[in-house]
Amino acid sequence: MKLSSFVHVLGLTLFSYLLLNSLAFGQEEALPSWNSSNTKTAILEYIKDISNTSSPNHIKVEDRIAVFDNDGTLMLEAPQTAESEFTNDYYANWIGKKSDTSFLQGLKRLFSRPSKEESTIGLSLEAYHEAVNRWQKTYKHPRFQRSYSHLVYKPMLELLSLLKENSFTSYISTGSEREFIRGFADTAYGLSPDRIIGSDRQYTYCFSEEGSFLLRQFREPHLNLNEFKAINIQKHIGKRPIFVVGNTDGDIQMLEYSQSSPLPSIQILIRHDDPVKEYSYINGAERVFSLAEKRGWKIVSIQRDWKDVF
């Protein structure tokens, strides 16, 4: 072989080696708030494998669907979920008002002392979103002294970003009300309203000189939990997700639904086991963690796997 040809081949080999290693390093650095662990490695290797066009496990971009639970998965849920705190505050303010609209006065008479869930009946979607955004700006968590929109898990934001870089389409499937999460999902997660699946309300269509609008009514009978997470994922997306993250028993069915995909998939659970950085609790998640080892679901320990939480 001529010297020039040898140098050329050597140069190409070296370039390929450096390129591959830089890509691997870049992906490793993509989760800077995560400690090195088997779980982090499994996540990175899965994303790298299904994104590699030369891999037998390669998945087409249109099938790269990721679904995340919200409360306790993307955002703090203790001592109560964001929606619960908002509803409590809104109800306390609403029930204490001296003057109400005739609609609300009638509602109060009808129900004597209406429930917290009923306090937002009669609001337009726009008014409800405004109320949620206003609350997010003023509410302070009793322990962390910041709003819930600033109590989003930093490591999970990094994971959402990494998935986006690798052409995943991410959705939220939450037991909280869909419109509540839509009120801040774009700001908190960079996810548009069409990416949110959640518990729903009934609505009344209205038309006036100002235009048409929808008024909130009662909740739909089924919350977006358990089997309804799998059902509503199919209704909303039309495909099984290949990447699912949850943290409670209410997420079991969507984890199972993902794992039953004919495509390579990964299922992940967030374990709340760090009372210093966040909270430590297992209530409502006993069954899902007992199933995790049998099903091969990956477990993220907040104490072990995350350097930072917020």
From TrEMBL:
InterPro entries documented for this protein: HAD-like_sf (IPR036412), HAD_sf (IPR023214)
Keyword Hydrolase: yes
Alphabetical UniProt keywords: Hydrolase
GO molecular function terms attached to this record: hydrolase activity
Pfam families per the UniProt record, alphabetical: HAD
Record bears the keyword Hydrolase: yes
Protein name, UniProt field: Haloacid dehalogenase-like hydrolase
